[in-house]
User: What shape does this take?
Amino acid sequence: MFLTVFPALLVACMSASVRGSGSAVVFHAHGPSNTSPASGKIIEYTVVEVNEGQGYNASNGVFMAPAGGMYMFSTQTCIWSNTFVLIAIIKEGVVVQPSALYDTSPGYAPCSSSQAFVRLSAGQRVWVESRRTNNGNMLFEDEERWTSFSGVLL
Assistant: This one.
């Protein structure tokens, strides 16, 4: 459901951002560069679908606020079956939204989403970090399920 609702939300927020500040700040990226990130590592989402305001850097997975204000960040994480992952949305090294996903169903690749509202000053950074995982290939993405990271200035 998240993927079907998100594009409408993205457009609405982008329009509101344009009306409110004169320029939009919104990004949406998916396709993690490493499907087995070690604990404490930033997850780099390499396929950038939207990057108005140029705040998201696909080479390091970090969003740097081009303008101050209240932002909404969201992440969707999909994993292979028999896998667990703890991730968090991080602001300047501090967890603002932890999330856990665990699956024991053979042949199923579930997804979980989380959101956070974060006030940022221009230049502050936000990213998604792997907090703890089991060994092996854990993050999953295909044409029907994306592992993604998004944000918008409200």
Remarks:
- The longest strand covers residues 69-78.
- Residues 21 and 122 are 14 Å apart (CA to CA).
- The chain has a mean pLDDT of 85.
- Strands lie at 26-32, 45-52, 56-57, 62-64, 69-78, 83-91, 94-103, 111-120, 125-133, 148-153.
